[in-house]
Amino acid sequence: MPEIVVISGKGGTGKTSLTAAFAHLAKAAVVCDLDVDAPDLHLILQPEIETRQDFFSGHEAIIDPADCTRCGLCADVCRYQAVISASGGFSINPLKCEGCKVCVHFCPAQAIRFPERHCGRWFLSRTRFGPLVHAQLFPGAENSGRLVALLRQKARELASQTGRTLILSDGSPGIGCPVISSLTGTDAAVLVTEPTPSGLHDLQRVADLCRHFTIPIGVIVNKADLNPETTEAVQRWCEAENADFLGALPYDPAVTEAMVRRQAVTEFSDNGSSAPIRMVWARIVEQMQRTRSPRTAVTAAPVK
Amino acid sequence: MIVAIASGKGGTGKTTVTGSLAWVWNRKVTAVDLDVEEPNLHLFLKPEILGREVAALEVPVADESKCTACRACADLCQFKAISVLGSVLLTFPEMCHGCGGCIAVCPEKALSSGTRELGEILWGRAAGRIGFCMGRLRVGEAMSPPLMRAVMEKLASASPNAPTDVLIDAPPGTSCPAINAVLPSDAIVLVTEPTPFGNHDFRLAHAAFRPLEKPMAVIINRAGLGDRSVYEYCHSEHLPILAEIPFDRRLAEAYSRGRIVAEALPAMNQVFTELVCRLREWAPVESVREVALDA
C-alpha cells in the first residue's frame, strides 16, 4: 500500500490546503490527518464520524495526600521538576510529569498512584473524498508520536478493507517526534515550502530528516511569485540534492476563500493555482508509479 | 518580564513578531528561539554568534559484566529504552527520556551515565544591542522539550550582571513542545490569522495554555484576510487584541528577503513600537528577571 505524507518543516506553508486539494484529485485514497495536536484537514473535508475511540498512552503520577508522609524523596528523584511542594504537602504538575514512574518506584510510603493517561481521541470518518482517519490530541498532551503511529496503522487497515490503493497523509510542522513517526516506513514525502529564508532553511532540515530515514522526497514551492529568486534557489537545490522538484505554485487568494467556504481550492475554482496544483498532483502520481518499490514490512516508528 | 510568542497554527507570524518586537524594544532585551525543531529567528535578526555548546541527555550505558539480568531496570523503564533478553541486557538510547530511573534502581551498579546529543545551544548579540539565544535540535532527535529546558537553563545560569527582558519565539502546535516553550514566561502573546485554520488552532492553543494561568493576549496577523471568527472568539473569551498587522504583500516580500519588518517598513515600525507600549500596559510585570548571557 503506497503511503505519501505531506510535510514542510516550517508551519503555514500550505500543507493542509494542498493535502485537501490532493484528496479531491486522488482516486481511491484513504486520507489521514497526522497533525494530531493542531489538525485542520477536517475543516475542509467535513467528516461524518463513524467510529470514535479514546486514546490512552503512557501514565501519570498522582500523589495521594492521605498516604504521603511528606518526606520529599519524590522531588529529589524527579528529573523534570514536576513535583510541587506547597504548604507542607507535595503534588505533581501534570504538565511537567513525563510519566517515567521513578517517583512511584522510590516512594517509601507507596503514596503515588500511576494511572493511564487519557491523551486524546481518534476517529474513522466518511467524507465526500473518501474515508478519513483523524484524531485530536488533548490540549497540552503528550505522546503525539504514538497517536500518529496508531492512525497510520488504522489507515492501512481501512485501505485494505475498502480496497483503496493509496494512503495520503497531512503531516505536522517541525522535525520532532510526530514528524518522525509519520515518516518511518512511508513511501515518499512531499515537502511544501515557500520562497523565504525560513522556508528554505526548514526545508533543508526536514529533507535531512527524510534522508536519515531514506525516504524519497518531492518538493513544491508554494507562493512562489513572492520571491522568484529564492524559488529558483530551491529548484537548484533540488537538482543538487537529487530531490524531485514537483512544481511552483503562485500565491492565490482563492486558497483562503476556498478555506472559508470549507472547500478544497481545486473544488472551489479552476483558475489561479488550481491548474498548477493538478499538474503537481499528476506528477506525484506519475513518480509514484515509476519509482514505487514494493514494501512488505513497515518498520516500527520510534515514539516519544 | 518574559513574554512567550506562541500560536497553535504554524506560519502565522511568530518569528516576524518576535524579531520586530526585539528590534523596537526600548529596554535591555534577549530574544530566545525555542522553536528548536525549526529555529528561524537567527535568519532575520542575523546575530553575531559568540558562543555555542552541545546539549545532551543522560542515557544509561551498560556494563554487561556486572549485570545479573534481574530485570529491575527493564521493569521500571516506561519508554522501552532498556530490555533484558534472556541474559542479555539491551539499551536503546534513542528511546530514552533521561529519567535516570534505571541507573538508580540497578542493584549491581551495572548501569552508568552516558549521553545522547540533543542538539546545540548558540548565543550572541544582534545589532549590537539585542541579546540572542537559540536551540537547534539534532536532525533525527525526536524530543525537543529537554533541549528547550537546556536553553532556558543556559540563559538563567549565565552571569546575571545585566538583567534583561526576554522574548521567547515558541514552536507551533498545542502539545508538549509548545507547552514547554511557554512555561518559563510571565505572559503569553498568541499570534493568529483570521482564517478558519488560524481560528481553529488558536482556540486549541488557548485551551492548552489556559491551565497555566498566565495572562494571554492576541496579535492578529494578515488582518483583512479570511473571516471574523477569530475576532468573535477573542470577544467572547475577553482576550485583548493588542495589535492587528494588515495583510500586505510588501510585508510578505520584506520577510521573503530576510528583513525584520519593523526595520524595513516605517509603518510596521510604528505598529510594533505601539505594541511594546500596549504590552507593558497590559502585562505590567515590573520584576525584571535576572537573566542574561555573557557577551
Protein described:
The complex is a heterodimer of chains A (304) and B (295). Chain A is an alpha/beta fold and 304 residues long. Chain A has helices at residues 15-25, 41-45, 73-77, 102-106, 144-162, 177-183, 197-212, 228-241, 254-260, 265-268, 274-291, and strands spanning 3-7, 29-33, 48-59, 62-63, 83-86, 89-92, 112-113, 116-127, 130-137, 166-170, 188-193, 217-221, 244-248. In chain A, a hairpin with a 2-residue loop joins strand 5 and strand 6. The model of chain A is unreliable at 294-301 (pLDDT under 50). Chain B is of the alpha/beta class and 295 residues long. A nine-stranded mixed sheet of chain B has the order 3-6-7-2-8-1-9-10-11, with helices on both faces. The mean pLDDT of chain B is 93. Classes of the chains: A alpha/beta (304), B alpha/beta (295).
Q: What's the helix and strand layout?
A:
The complex is a heterodimer of chains A (304) and B (295).
Chain A: E1 3-7, H1 15-25, E2 29-33, H2 41-45, E3 48-59, E4 62-63, H3 73-77, E5 83-86, E6 89-92, H4 102-106, E7 112-113, E8 116-127, E9 130-137, H5 144-162, E10 166-170, H6 177-183, E11 188-193, H7 197-212, E12 217-221, H8 228-241, E13 244-248, H9 254-260, H10 265-268, H11 274-291
Parallel strand pairs in A: 1-10, 1-11, 2-9, 2-10, 11-12, 12-13
Antiparallel strand pairs in A: 3-8, 4-7, 5-6, 8-9
Helix pairs in contact in A: 5-6
Chain B: E1 2-6, H1 14-24, E2 29-33, H2 41-45, E3 48-62, H3 72-76, E4 82-85, E5 88-91, H4 101-105, E6 111-126, E7 130-137, H5 145-157, E8 165-169, H6 176-182, E9 187-192, H7 196-209, E10 216-223, H8 229-236, E11 241-246, H9 249-256, H10 261-264, H11 266-282
Parallel strand pairs in B: 1-8, 1-9, 2-7, 2-8, 9-10, 10-11
Antiparallel strand pairs in B: 3-6, 4-5, 6-7
Helix pairs in contact in B: 1-11
Short description:
With 304 residues, chain A is of the alpha/beta class. Chain A has helices at 15-25, 41-45, 73-77, 102-106, 144-162, 177-183, 197-212, 228-241, 254-260, 265-268, 274-291, and strands at residues 3-7, 29-33, 48-59, 62-63, 83-86, 89-92, 112-113, 116-127, 130-137, 166-170, 188-193, 217-221, 244-248.
